[in-house]
Design a protein that fits this description.
By secondary structure, the chain is of the alpha/beta class. The protein has six helices and three strands; from the N terminus they run αβαβαβααα. Strands 1-2-3 form a three-stranded parallel beta sheet, sandwiched between helices. The longest helix is centred in the first third of the chain and has 18 residues. It is globular, with a radius of gyration of 16 Å.
Length: about 120
């Protein structure tokens, strides 16, 4: 995490903040540090969405559950975006959006649901 002279002013004035982290200890620490910093600067007035990136849905294995993530961040409603290497590689190689490769892919559905919820919350 690199501190910049303009970081606090951006975090203090942004309308919507998305903190995207991966499901490993180093990324969780950095995400939690940033989340705490924003809460210290803005209190509960800031609209922050926490996003677990590259989330794998599996029955067994070493991974963090949504409940564990909510406990780590002390925040409810953590969103997740599925890991789909094949989709992202294909989109990158063809220089098109992932939604143009496979609009019904779980990755695209996750993003669509997350942004729709944020827009609905902002409209209230």
């Amino acid at each position: 995490n690199i501190e910049t002279p303009w970081q606090n002013s951006v975090l203090s004035t942004s309308d919507e903040i998305f903190i995207v982290f991966e499901l490993n200890v180093a990324s969780l620490r950095q995400g939690k540090r940033l989340y705490t910093k924003i809460r210290e600067l803005r209190g509960n007035a800031a609209s922050i969405t926490l996003v677990a990136n590259k989330h794998k849905r599996k029955w067994f294995g070493n991974h963090f559950s949504r409940r564990e993530l909510e406990k780590i961040f002390k925040a409810p409603h953590i969103k997740s975006v599925s890991l789909d290497n094949a989709l992202l590689t294909d989109a990158l190689n063809r220089a098109i959006l992932p939604s143009e490769v496979a609009g019904r892919a779980r990755f695209n559905k996750d993003l669509k649901r997350m942004f729709k919820e944020r827009l609905d919350d902002a409209a209230r």
